Amino acid sequence: MDLDFTRAERDFRAEVRDWLARHVPERPPSMDTPEGFEAHRAWEALLASARLSAVSWPEEYGGRGASLVEWLIFEEEYWAAGAPGRVSQNGIFLLAPTLMAFGTEEQRRAWLPGMARADQVWAQAWSEPEAGSDLAALTSRAERADGGWRLYGQKTWSSRAAYASHGFGLFRTSGARHKGLTYVMFPLEDVAVRPVAQLDGLPGFAELFFDGVYVPDTMVIGEPGDGWRIAMAATSSERGLTLRSPGRFLATADRLVALARDADPALADRAARCWIDAEAYRLHTFHTARRITAGEEIGPASSMGKVFWSELDLRMHGLAMELLGERAGTTPWLDGFLFALAGPIYAGTNEIQRTIIAERVLGLPR
Amino acid sequence: MDFAFTPDQLALAETVRDVLTEHCPASALRSERLPAWDRLAAVGFFGLLVPPEADGLGLCLVDALPALEETGRACLPGPVVETAVVAPYLLPGVPKLASGAVRVSVVPPGGAGAPDADLADLIVVAAPSTRGRDGGAVVVGREAARLRPLPGPDPCRRLSEVTYTESTPLDRPLAPALRAATVATAAQLIGVARRLLEVSVAYARSRRQFGAPIGSFQAVKHRLADVAVAVAFAAPLVHRAALAVEAAVPDAGLEVRAVPDVGRDVSAAKAAAGEAADLAARAALQTHGAIGYTEELDLRFWLARAWSLSAAYGGAAEHRARIREALAGGDLRRYP
């Protein structure tokens, strides 16, 4: 057992730190405004020009074949540098792993390089009005058409859809519940999009209405009917490492400790606890990375990480709100707090995650 | 980076676990003061950290960590950490230490007393702590010590106040030994917490009310899931602290690596492990209901151990205060 970075890993960290120090822009407007969206896209393109937008991808798609540990190092440096949020998050960290695992070589070549440069920005489209935590209740459907499929139905809480170019999600092609679902990518230009303002007043997500939108067969990932298995593989990576790496929380914890430096001991104690927990998430992730590298399946244990980071993030930002009081709105902490509030809800509510932990990790009866 | 225990480290724990399963069953906690000690000595447990020139194995703390966790899981009585971890740091020259023939107890700085001092041959008594400064310590032979038992929650880890007539000054620095003891205690707490979670899950699966196992109820599930999360994220802090302790000991024959603040890593481990064990104890008691609140159910021993070890070598609040102080200095660099 050791916790030592290799020379190559230390060099990589130094390179990333140096590049970010020279290129990270002033805080752009929110990515959920038209000008902010474009600013975030331009930032993604700049990252891509240094092969830093998707470091863990193979080189042929625009990455640098970085190891899991190197990716974690990248993330630490990225968030410590105060770099912008990732407008390409859905694509790079959710769709791309799915294409790597289940897509065809043609699909990977068609979509990954553009995703790395943010030529296309992807929205995710899982939830429906009657299918939230119970995703398998979804009713949006794909009907066979000549050389492809026509999509019908409604999706909701589709993050980034207000400005994105493409989306991906599950559509029913046959059967009931988990059976007969198909994983489909689609352009948003033919979809009716109703942006939905979030707690910050900006349209971070949208409702999508499909009325016979045509997609060719090449937009289906994996076999028709196999969508549930494919999506679950992706969401388990979402809950696990790729959605929220430790770097983001380490950076927040450091800023929180600085903010709480002269606070009264009760508040400073809570800041210290958050700092410890951010370290715990980092170390736990190093252990998980080791297991993944050794070929182990993480499986339902990834739900533990989701509960831990989302509640840590909320505790940190909630404490910052207490420390700042009425001045919170003049700092980035307010936006961070509003964003953190969503953590226990998205990617599977924490109630669902706790049930998964109890049943599938601990073995309690259904 | 290879942040997982090696097969050798796990095999050592497996050996200790087998010994404890056979020789330290829950029934022994009611009838013996030192169950399984002679068997553990026979497999070399007390010599793990003792240098080879004193007939020990000369291993690192991290090598022994999974085995120490097993002693927590089994609720092993006796001054385990003091004899197996503190003594090799402070008293490596004491004859027969590696064989387990000499038992050691410790009054840490700021501690109320020494655990199981009546079973110890030697007692290390630290000078009252002077805010982080190593005030030194003395060694007291059992025959020169007067012990006054202190009431406490744990019937298998009894504290005694120690006064003495004769003592020998300790010629080694106390701080590294205390850090190692704190990490070892944190490892035991992880073992206690894991055992508490296991027995709670087992009980929730078998106990039926309203025609269903209580473990099928979401309120019970979510409470136990919270324990699983707390333990899963406390454990790596303990593992890191064990590595940090070794990396900061120059005479361990290792390159001294850049560990910004070993004490901070140790405190993080102890605070998190203590709170995880405390949460596990609360959840275990609530899951068991009234039967858990009895003296006759063995659960009581693990509840008590969670409480006694949480307080040993500094409680969570005390350790967080140390972290707060360290962070206030402005050095937020991390190990690794």
List strands and helices in order, with pairings:
The complex is a heterodimer of chains A (366) and B (336).
Chain A: H1 7-23, H2 34-49, H3 68-80, H4 89-102, H5 105-117, E1 122-125, E2 141-145, E3 148-159, E4 166-172, E5 181-187, E6 192-196, E7 205-216, E8 220-221, H6 227-242, H7 246-259, H8 265-293, H9 302-324, H10 333-342, H11 350-361
Parallel strand pairs in A: 1-4
Antiparallel strand pairs in A: 2-3, 3-7, 4-5, 5-8, 6-7
Chain B: H1 7-23, H2 26-31, H3 37-42, H4 61-73, H5 80-90, E1 104-107, E2 114-115, E3 122-126, E4 137-141, E5 145-149, E6 159-164, E7 168-169, H6 174-206, E8 208-209, E9 212-213, H7 218-247, H8 262-288, H9 299-311, H10 316-328
Parallel strand pairs in B: 1-3
Antiparallel strand pairs in B: 2-6, 3-4, 4-7, 5-6, 8-9
Organism (chain B): Nonomuraea rhodomycinica
Keywords (chain B): FAD, Flavoprotein, Oxidoreductase
Cofactor (chain B): FAD
Question: Would you kindly provide a written description of the structure presented here, covering whatever features stand out?
Answer:
- The complex is a heterodimer of chains A (366) and B (336).
- Chain A is of the alpha+beta class and 366 residues long.
- Helix content of chain A is 48%, strand content 15%.
- Chain A has a 4-stranded mixed beta sheet. A 4-stranded antiparallel beta sheet of chain A has the order 2-3-7-6, with no helix packed on it.
- The radius of gyration of chain A is 20 Å and the shape is globular.
- Chain A starts with 6 loop residues before the first helix and ends in a 5-residue tail after the last helix.
- The model of chain A has no long low-confidence stretch (mean pLDDT 95).
- Chain B has a domain at 174-328: Butyryl-CoA Dehydrogenase, subunit A, domain 3 (Up-down Bundle).
- Chain B has helices at residues 7-23, 26-31, 37-42, 61-73, 80-90, 174-206, 218-247, 262-288, 299-311, 316-328, and strands at 104-107, 114-115, 122-126, 137-141, 145-149, 159-164, 168-169, 208-209, 212-213.
- In chain B, strands 1-3-4-7 form a 4-stranded mixed beta sheet, covered by helices on one side.
- In chain B, a hairpin with a 2-residue loop joins strand 8 (208-209) and strand 9 (212-213).
- In chain B, helix 7 packs antiparallel against helix 8 (262-288).
- The radius of gyration of chain B is 20 Å and the shape is globular.
- The mean pLDDT of chain B is 94.
- The interface between A and B is large, with 50 and 48 residues.
- Chain A: Residues 7-118 form the Acyl-CoA dehydrogenase/oxidase N-terminal domain.
- Chain A: This is Acyl-CoA dehydrogenase family protein.
- Chain A: Belongs to the acyl-CoA dehydrogenase family.
- Chain A: Its cofactor is FAD.
